[in-house]
Amino acid sequence: MSTIQKQTTVAKPIRSLEDALNQCQVLGMRLSRQRRLILELLWQVKEHLSAREIYDRLNQQGKEIGHTSVYQNLEALSSQGIIECLERSDGRLYGNVSDAHSHVNCLDTHQIIDVYIELPEELLNQIEQQTGVRITEYRIDFYGYQGNGAEIQNRA
Description:
The protein has about 160 residues and is α+β, with helices and mostly antiparallel strands. The chain has helices at about 5-10, 15-25, 35-45, 50-60, 65-80, 120-130, 150-155, and strands at about 85-90, 90-95, 100-105, 110-115, 140-145.
C-alpha cells in the first residue's frame, strides 16, 4: 500500500483500543488472538515497550504467544499506522498512540511520555519562512531528568 493510499484510508486519529480494532477491520486486517492481545496490552500499559517486553509481559500474564508472532504483528500494526514505532539506538519501541504527538524523554528513568502540544502560529510561520516548507504536522522530542516537583515549579 502506498503512502498516499495509507493516508486516505486513515479517516480519524486512533485514540482508543476500540479505534485501533476498528481501523484493523477498515484496512482488512485479520483480528487474530495475538494481534488483539498486543493491542490490548499497549492500551492497558500506555507505555512504549520493546518487542521483547511485549512478549515477556503477555507470557507472564499466561497469554502464550510466540516471539515470531509478536514481531510480525508489531510490524503489521506499525506499518499500517495503527500503533507507533519509535526507532531508538537500542532498538524499536512500540506505543499505542499513532497520531501526531510529541515525546518527553526522561533520561534517568528511560520513560517516554506522550504529550500533545500546539506551537504558536507565529513560530510555525517563522519555520515555514526559513525553510520554504508548509508545516502540516510536527513531532518534538524533549529530553530531561525527573526532578522533584519544586524544581519544576520554581522554573515556571
